Amino acid sequence: xxxxxxxxxxxxxxxxxxxxxxxxxxxxxxxxxxxxxxxxxxxxxxxxxxxxxxxxxxxxxxxxxxxxxxxxxxxxxxxxxxxxxxxxxxxxxxxxxxxxxxxxxxxxxxxxxxxxxxxxxxxxxxxxxxxxxxxxxxxxxxxxxxxxxxxxxxxxxxxxxxxxxxx
Amino acid sequence: xxxxxxxxxxxxxxxxxxxxxxxxxxxxxxxxxxxxxxxxxxxxxxxxxxxxxxxxxxxxxxxxxxxxxxxxxxxxxxxxxxxxxxxxxxxxxxxxxxxxxxxxxxxxxxxxxxxxxxxxxxxxxxxxxxxxxxxxxxxxxxxxxxxxxxxxxxxxxxxxxxxxxxxxxxxxxxxxxxxxxxxxxxxxxxxxxxxxxxxxxxxxxxxxxxxxxxxxxxxxxxxxxxxxxxxxxxxxxxxxxxxxxxxxxxxxxxxxxxxxxxxxxxxxxxxxxxxxxxxxxxxxxxxxxxxxxxxxxxxxxxxxxxxxxxxxxxxxxxxxxxxxxxxxxxxxxxxxxxxxxxxxxxxxxxxxxxxxxxxxxxxxxxxxxxxxxxxxxxxxxxxxxxxxxxxxxxxxxxxxxx
Lengths: 167, 402
Known about the structure:
The complex is a heterodimer. Chain A is an alpha/beta fold. Chain A contains five helices and seven strands.
């Protein structure tokens, strides 16, 4: 990084191209409009509403999985739904991330005794960020996206470090 | 036009006998002769959902179209089945509200009310008048919040975007009040058998009145923004007509039934909580189309504001809950308790044996009946109107699948 003499901010970044792409990606995370249950109202609707304003973070919804970067699993996944969740995940283009929102997507939540309910969406798709709560507040969802942005920005550095360790 | 389902059956029979033309298109597309000029057209099967931005949850509708026109539709349920009724048999009576909240998750208070009323009926608890008034106040605020979600998404279904942001702005104001009262934005678990968990916090009345004062004006703005739009009117007027007989035959309730011209409102027919003491009008439609459903819901919001004002003005003094034991044991019996939720008659039918949990618990979700009606009203309309009609019924899959 280089300091701009006028603004005093980092204006030039000497980074690898993959890091540049990840920097850009982390600021335009488009999530798939896929609300399963209660959490969808908080995480997808309220969070993108005027008060919490997800757009300012570059987070916006796309209707199709083929245009989406992030899948927010917002709700209880049962066995009938599990197949669809996996299919949608497979339809998303790489690179892709999954946010498990709420108790149901994390562990099955209040419905985990019921045999039809999947005990956590990580049994079906790899999960990057878990959000606790039933339902989590919109702020929690936005915090999860900030953590996801950090994860995306750091992943090249981690990969390079792993490569250095191997050699 | 012949009934499309007959065509589906006849082609299916042909396929099973192996006598069909080897040039048959793959499953999903059926080639049938039609038209005066002898051209053959194809019926196309389109799958909507369970991931679809406008099916309001995880509804799956399989639509068969002839060009742009829907000839048959089938709604598939069960993508959100999570055993609320069965789990209720393992829950204590004061925990039932937790499950009901997550059934109809946009208007949680109404579900809690139904569960609490059922327990109170069997135990013959006299609920203090203040608790009853608080319940009605919360229920009406929740109704406005729920109708605002419907209003915002119904506009999205017809292709408008701006009204969604305005609706969410007002909904946040209500959620602030509900959070101040109950401690949660959505899953309140505030109404319990015997009353409510806690008294209203100090100074909340001024906040509610301030919201009502603002919302009176905002409601006019909402109506002008969406209902005053000529494109919107063209989209919804005369579309998706549900006549009186069909609505009654399918067991519709709530705004969908009232838009069809039946003046049934549980708050009026079987008054519970404070509704016998509150003044309100029940708006009724005449044609039963999507426009009537829109108008009925907009008027319901106005009536809800009116009731909220009355509830604040007439809030009685006293206890917020009756004396209820810590571990509730309900005498053996069978009970049916219903409330008017945002979507219709939400009810609980419960059988008890004297223990601490129900033996059989049935949750009547009004959306289930609206979903079944889709197969009747969708054929004959354009594909573009399918999403709009699903939106106009204001369905909630959490309570349809349970």
